[in-house]
Amino acid sequence: MYLTWLYGKAITSFCHAEDVVDLPLKDSSNGTRHTQDERKKITLVDLVKAVAPPCRLNPLLFNGHLQTAWTAVKSTDIPIHYKRRVFTSTNESYPGIFAVDFVIPPPENPSPKDPELPVRTHHYTDHEFEQLGGDDEKPMLICLHGLSGGSYEVYLRHVLKPLVENSDWEACVVNARGCANSKVTSSRLYNARATWDIRQMVEWIHQKWPRRRLFGIGFSLGANILVNYLGEEGSKCLLDAAVIVCNPWNLEVCGLALKRTWVGLNVYSAAMGSSMKKLFERHVDQISKNPDIDVEKVRSCKYLFEFDRYVQCPSWGYPTEDAYYRDASSSDSILAVKIPLFAIHAEDDPIAVDEAVPREEIKRNPNVVLCSTSLGGHLSYFEIGGERWFARVATAFLQKIANDLDWNAVNNARSECVDADVHADGKTPIFEPVRRKLHGGSLPGA
Questions:
Q1: Predicted TM-score (pTM) of this structure
Q2: In the annotation, is 29 catalytic?
Q3: Which of 148, 220, 331, 333 is catalytic?
Q4: What is the mean pLDDT of residues 118-134?
């Protein structure tokens, strides 16, 4: 069993509650009406197992470090075309703008590359944007990328391609503020618990296309943000289901794990720190309007935790980077998730480390299933030939849950669901999974 890596075959395990939620399936009985009790159902864990094939990866990439490093070497291009729209935040506590890239079909006559935008990305004209909306019922995927990334990331496009290539799905990517060549108009970059922009976009899309089923997917830090959003929304969430890939879950635990080894500190933490410093330099004129940020200290730092100490802490009022990590972690938020959530995790992930996964909390929520594999690395999972296992599983799950569920029955069940306060007697202490310590407010230059 311990030599399975020689063949690239990972050991797969599933973590979930004892009584996982039942999902009603479409009726295939030629119009015969069934009662709620008679309707065919599938549990969330059975659905996940049905779409998760054996995890067989490239045996030459036999551990998490090699898998993760290969993401920087592999140069396969997956052409996805976008049109961008810049939105103004409606949250008065977090003013500014953010960019959303909507997937479009490949244009017959592609425009020249816009030097100010990522490849194959152009702005919507006002007229084009005004024409958006309608009454179609296509499923739509809303994506959140990883640290300092954007809609151009290859791991993200691995998921988008099979969904949108036949125009069966619509999709968009919410770029974190300052990422993917977007502008920053306040003195703050995004942070690891910045749920306000995804909340605004989900509400906007729901109003724009009220008949569409909406789904979310988050990668790495975007997965952490997505779980926090799902927990904050609870049973009011407008998404119908979600997938998360390589979520760091407990940011303090992951940060300590990175400091523990030479590779963690000098390869991963240094690489992530460098990418965030580049993002900082791109927006330094705006961010430096915050008098609490020492630009020279930021420029002298090397590791991610130093960047968070000198940028995120003064930006958001945290006394230390560990306080920031504890407040932004999604390991408690998982308890408040009320929609079907499928989590994919590699136990050899050197960044979103295995010890940070809140398995006991997952076991307390019937709406969540975690699929863990012994191999895979961080946002990698490379198979022979260059495809990524996680992308095949994520897209299969999304297709299955979008196409096979009886959504009228799902909606009826959700409308009857009320977040129950099981300790409403005023005597028993209540644990609030998504209680946050950060409060809104403006900083100088915000």
A1: 0.93
A2: no
A3: 220
A4: 94
